[in-house]
Design goal:
Helices cover 16% and strands 35% of the residues. The chain is an alpha/beta fold and 955 residues long. It has seven domains: 128 residues, Ribonuclease Inhibitor (Leucine-rich repeat, LRR (right-handed beta-alpha superhelix), Alpha-Beta Horseshoe); 81 residues, no CATH class; 102 residues, Immunoglobulin-like (Sandwich), CATH 2.60.40; 133 residues, no CATH class; 157 residues, no CATH class; 137 residues, no CATH class; 36 residues. The strands form 17 sheets. Strands 43, 45, 46, 47, 49, 50 and 52 form a seven-stranded mixed β-sheet that branches. Strands 22-28-27-24-25 form a five-stranded mixed β-sheet, with no helix packed on it. Strands 37-35-42-39-40 form a five-stranded mixed β-sheet. 28% of the residues are buried. This is Leucine-rich repeat domain-containing protein. Keywords: Membrane, Transmembrane, Transmembrane helix.
Length: 955
Amino acid sequence: MKLVIPAVVGGVPVKGIGDNAFNQSNYASISFVGLDLSAATGLTAIGKGAFFNCTGLTGSLRLPAGITSVGENAFYSAGYRFVYLSGKNTVYGDSAFGGGALAAVVCPDKSSYDALTLKPPVDRAEKLTYPVTLRFVDEAGNEAAKARAALYRMPLKYVQKDNKSWTIKADYKLPEPSAGTSSNNWRWVFDKGSSTGVTPDSLVTGEVLTLIQPLDLPQVGFGGDIDKTYDGKPASLNVSASHPHYSSYQGAQNGDVIFYFIWTWVDESGKETRKSDYDLFNMEFRDAGSFTCRVTVQAAIKGENKIIYEDHHDFKVKIRKAEPDVTPVISSDSISVSGSLPTLSLKEGSTEGSIRWDDGQTIQEGKHDYSWTFTPKDNNNYTETQGTITLEGVSDALYAIEVTVSGKGKVSPSGSFSLSKGETVDFTFTPEPGYKLDSVTFDGVDIKGELKENTYQLKNVPAGDSKTHRLAVSFVIMESEDMKKVFDSLPVLSEGSSVNTEQANAYLDAKIQYEELCQNRTPNIPEETLLKFHRSLLALPSIKIDVDETGIVTMSDYAALLYDMTAQEARELRNGAITNYTITINVKKSTVNPEQKKEIQSLLKDAVITSGSYDIKLYKIITKNSITTTTALYETPKQLILSFPVPKDIKAVANGYQRTFYVAGLHENSRSRTSASLFTNSDSSGKTITIKCDKFSVFSVIYQDVKKAEDSHHSDNKDNNSSNNNDNNSSSNTYVPDYEKDFWDNVVKLIKKAKAGDTVNVNAVTYDKMPEAVMAALRENPYVALIVRWDGGKPVIIPAQTALVYEKGRVYYPLSLLSELYAKVNAALTTPAPAPSGSGSASNSNSGKSWEISAPSSNKTSSYTPTPKDKGSETTTETETESETETQETETPSETMEEPTPAPETTPEEELPVKELTKKTESKTITIVLIASCVLLILVVVIIAVLLSIKRKNR
């Protein structure tokens, strides 16, 4: 019987089907074979067990849209294969659907599905599903087959028919890829990391199936074994590996094939070594030994956590010990039969090690062979060697000599030895690099004047006596003048000229000496001498500076880059280990990013950043033992002069304004930290901006336009930079932010306000430069002392009447310089200098008051509002009424914005002119006046006491 639920029964609309209304157990003689709910448009509820066990109801059930509730077990054990739910707001009882025939309960969309997962209306939650659009793509994300509809978490063989209903297609096949597929071994996967593909019975776990095409296996080959005698040079085990999609690990993108190597071996001592890395195609061995080295090669796909190929191979490594090169040297081949064997040493160039006479040998008269044994220092790579030397034993007494050495250097022959009568010996003295021969005495007599090219010859020695004759030699560190003489003695070389081995070795020896000397002290060599030397050093064929001579940014005196060469590098250039030493300078046009722009604008108020930005990088490239390494140079030991073109696209300067160009530098060091510097222009051509710099990264040409009427003293102060401590250019090349200027302006006012004998105590915190205006205030009010404490060093103590005279062009003084200078000044004074007070503490000297002023805690603060303490507070307990009007600030000469003064050649650390310090007669006069005042005051008190006494008596 087919059930048709009408819209109205007896004129009453049908709104629900009651509990167990058509429960099959209530109708034993009737079998319901169909259910039509299409007419029941007002149906909203289906009761519990309404169609329970109606197995004749087969096919699909589509609930009307108006259904709001379905009771528990309402369709349980019915014969439906697919049930289509109507909407999101329907309430379902437990196991509203279920039974063996049910394949899926289909929600209209994912949101309905998510709402029902907490309390599924079906007896088994895995039967609940919703439709998705399933895409087929390749690994690049491109469409590989036509998309189709599927049911989430249902087998792929569940297929949607044209009428939007679902059926199970037993013969469903997955789509095949296009004809251009490179491999027949393809598979579809929901997860790219899956090693197996899906089948028609696989559940739908996503909305994208990806076509995976296995890569071809890589081609791997293994080189030969190592079988050689030790020669100090490396031998290599090699592996070749290739693949069409191979890329080095550093440049690989996801999907590329990369190779990983694991090398392991156990040497003869039992020590196990393991080295592994990407692209480690070879392994070098230098030292003697015999063992097996295993290499494991793995291939993987970048971005996927799996290995697609692995193989290993065992290499044989056999490096035999070498025979040492031994040339014995004896102090004499004639020996006394009553003495001992002569001193035995090795000739220069022999294999490093020790040589000794074999024990138990007796000296006999006449010529005989005496045996020796050489033990190499590197006994892992060289064998022990024996040999003999023919000596003549004589009965005459021998001339005994003992050589003693102090300092760093060698004497040959050395030690203790004896000579036969009439023999001659040549002594050679060789100082170590950075040292020189100081004194040579023989039996206490100075013989240094008898040396020829550090060689002394002792001729025709007499017969031996009872004493030992002593040759005493000392070596000391070279002086600056000695090093300059070495430089001056060298021939001038030019790039491109022919340089012979002797000249090249002489220059490299001088470089080694200079660098070793710098390890012990800072030699005082004229700069022009050093530049001349390093320019000639560039003529050596193995040394080169690669610079673009036609570039838009030009550089001068780049030979100074060779200051960076170390003594060890010079040694290896001399012995041939290093065959190429190149410093490359790369200049590229650049643009500043927002972060860099912010850094630049913090350097200079109202700075305009032009299009002239350049990224300048320096690299040191060294080829040593056929291996080339490249090292970035972030700083240079010597400042270089850079010239930048004035950008052509900048706006013209407005009427009434003056334009000044600068260069902002954003420097990155080896720890990836960035600092910023502002460089002034020393070029007046108007076409280029020229600076001195020893740090390299990003440079940007900027400018500042200021009104021509603006006070030059203030303008120059604005051009100071307090954030970088960079004294690379002239003293006016850095920018003082407004809050730092405000602080020092308050110091100036405080000095002018103080009275004779007062002391102004300044806590500069992190500021490390004092404007010249402060020194000008001390000159204007000479009887005021100044103490400046700062975080970077010792306090600066400036006694009264010791202000420095004005120096033309001076804008600021480094506090480190003033601290050192005034330490000497205070040591020369007969009157003790004022002592620095603690921060914020009150103090009152014998002759005046102390005033305190402190800088903000950090010079990186974006804004600064001085507090009463910052503006200067009197710390003495006495009170003093300030004058109603302060003395106007004295304008000190400074550089104008018209044309920046070029950087001086001398460094700011040079001696500054100081007023002559003499014991002033004024101090004596003041002392006498004070004593006289005290005596007069006591006399007045006595007279008043006498008058009062007389008055009492009269009463």
